[in-house]
């Protein structure tokens, strides 16, 4: 209730139309950052405020909520719903874990590879929610009960007093050191272990456990940057580019993948090395086998993975069909107009077929393609038995699984960008950013990326990029560099929200397990801020070709 009142002076200090638009933008920013209203409700504020304040007529505001970018996003969500419906994602996850092995460092790598791959197509939140139960099952096989592990970490060697330590090196054995007459009894144990060694082993196991819980949301956030449909900020970039620079068609699914996928692999490898180093996974056991308790526990974990995979049985007709359409979906999106070679879109009228058209064609097939192999005999003999007709995906399932609030959030961002453009607010902000034109572009891109990566720790990734992209685009025009040079690193850096549980839903899911503390996530952040800044540096190398071409932007580029 206070936010609208506190922002009222803007209407009298800033020029009339620009001031009104700035008032709405800042009001939405406050509500998005504080979540005083649901994010989707805040996203709908332009529908009522822009027309009533004379900023933009409703016939220009409302269409922004369902642009072709929203249809592309919707098609990705529907495809993800079909994959989840038939459990294809679980089969992929268990298969990767079977391949990489069960040593902690390799398991962390397997978890990160699987999470990042799935989050390229599924939502980051769904990926994390699916992978964490798999991780917990493997960890219990490796280390036993977590509560016992925590108790063992608290014990210290005390030869003068009583002590009781529960051992869970092997999950199927409950080993216990007891005391009798203040002296330890070793007769029932095949191996002698001091209490300090037991504690150190428990602490090591706890570190590995935390590494598993942290690596999954981190990999999901990193993997989402590789495809346009992987995370909402990527689509907001495309939508706002089309709003500010209608002639710009440099970014589509294929061209983005060529740029972002190598970058994602780089950060995934760096993330794995860093997490494995911090959480005890990198040691001589990575390449050398040792016949000890850990090896027995690893064998048990391997058996659990094998058993879970066998329970899935052979690939069902529905799973194979979904995999086929998923591959066709990715190939068609990638090859429509990849920029470095001629795509299949040349067979149609130029500018008519977009990524949204491709996506909707494929997902439409899912709603009528059968989930069970049909009987060919039925076509020749109507009395022959035939499998019941159940499509791969029902509309009811799609309604339940698609996060419609995110689609409204995307629309709110596009509406805000349109208002900033039509009201002249973007130009007004650009005039006030003129002093920043003296900053070298190479330094500016690193500062922008680092700032966005830090700001997004306290606000929604989607809301953050919606707020700052118009400002960044105008800054690029004032500095006379290609807008993509600033906008793409900022968009990728926005996805690197690793520090707090509230930063992004995957972090919240991992934190909700109750086995992580805030300090476990916060004190690892420094390396990932470095990642975000490195993103700006790598972007300078990868974007040289795009930045040499200023034709789609209609702005003067400083050589």
From TrEMBL:
Family: Belongs to the SLC13A/DASS transporter (TC 2.A.47) family. NADC subfamily.
Localization of this protein: Membrane
Name of this protein: Solute carrier family 13 member 3
Keyword Transferase in annotation: no
Signal peptide: 1-19
Transmembrane segments: 29-53, 65-83, 103-122, 212-236, 256-280, 317-335, 347-369, 439-472, 484-502, 522-541
UniProt KW Cytoplasm keyword: no
């Amino acid at each position: 209730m206070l936010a609208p009142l506190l922002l009222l002076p803007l209407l009298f200090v800033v020029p009339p139309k620009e001031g009104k638009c700035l008032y709405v933008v800042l009001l939405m920013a406050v509500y998005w950052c504080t979540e005083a209203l649901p994010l989707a409700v805040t996203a709908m504020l332009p529908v009522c405020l822009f027309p009533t304040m004379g900023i933009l007529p409703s016939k220009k505001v409302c269409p922004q909520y369902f642009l072709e970018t929203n249809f592309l996003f919707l098609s990705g969500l529907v495809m993800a719903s079909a994959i989840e419906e038939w459990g294809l994602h679980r089969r992929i996850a268990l298969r990767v874990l079977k391949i990489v092995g069960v040593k902690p460092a390799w398991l962390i790598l397997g978890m990160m590879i699987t999470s990042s791959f799935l989050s390229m197509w599924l939502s980051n939140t769904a990926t994390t929610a699916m992978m964490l139960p798999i991780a917990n099952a493997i960890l219990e096989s490796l280390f036993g009960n977590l509560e016992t592990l925590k108790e063992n970490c608290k014990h210290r060697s005390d030869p003068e007093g009583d002590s009781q330590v529960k051992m869970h090196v092997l999950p199927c054995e409950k080993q216990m050191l007891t005391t009798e007459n203040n002296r330890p009894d070793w007769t029932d144990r095949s191996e002698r272990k001091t209490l300090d060694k037991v504690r150190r082993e428990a602490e090591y196991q706890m570190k590995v456990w935390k590494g598993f819980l942290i690596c999954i949301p981190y990999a999901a956030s990193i993997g989402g940057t590789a495809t346009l449909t992987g995370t909402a900020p990527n689509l907001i970039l495309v939508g706002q580019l089309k709003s500010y620079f209608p002639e710009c068609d440099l970014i589509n699914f294929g061209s983005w993948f060529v740029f972002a996928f190598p970058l994602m692999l780089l950060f995934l490898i760096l993330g794995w090395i860093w997490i494995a180093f911090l959480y005890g996974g990198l040691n001589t056991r990575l390449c050398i086998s040792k016949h000890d308790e850990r090896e027995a526990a690893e064998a048990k974990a391997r058996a659990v993975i094998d058993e879970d995979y066998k329970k899935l049985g052979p690939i069902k007709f529905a799973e194979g069909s979904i995999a086929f359409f998923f591959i066709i979906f990715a190939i068609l999106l990638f090859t429509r107009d990849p920029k470095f070679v001629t795509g299949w879109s040349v067979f149609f009228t130029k500018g008519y077929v977009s990524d949204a058209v491709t996506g909707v064609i494929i997902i439409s097939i899912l709603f009528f393609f059968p989930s069970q192999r049909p009987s060919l005999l039925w076509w020749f003999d109507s009395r022959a038995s035939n499998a019941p007709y159940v499509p791969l995906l029902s509309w009811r399932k799609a309604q339940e699984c698609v996060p419609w609030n995110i689609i409204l959030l995307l629309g709110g961002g596009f509406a805000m960008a349109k208002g900033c453009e039509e009201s002249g607010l973007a130009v007004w902000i650009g005039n006030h950013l003129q002093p920043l034109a003296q900053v070298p572009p190479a330094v500016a891109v690193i500062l922008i990326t680092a700032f966005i990566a830090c700001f997004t720790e306290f606000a929604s990734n989607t809301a953050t990029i919606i707020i700052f992209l118009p400002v960044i685009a105008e800054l690029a025009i004032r500095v006379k560099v290609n807008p993509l040079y600033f906008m793409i690193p900022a968009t990728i850096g926005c996805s690197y929200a690793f520090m707090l549980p509230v930063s992004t839903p995957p972090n919240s899911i991992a934190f909700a397990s109750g086995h992580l503390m805030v300090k476990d996530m916060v004190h690892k952040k420094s390396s990932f801020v470095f990642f975000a800044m490195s993103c700006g540096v790598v972007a300078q190398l990868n974007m040289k070709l795009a930045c040499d071409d200023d034709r789609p932007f209609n702005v003067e580029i400083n050589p």
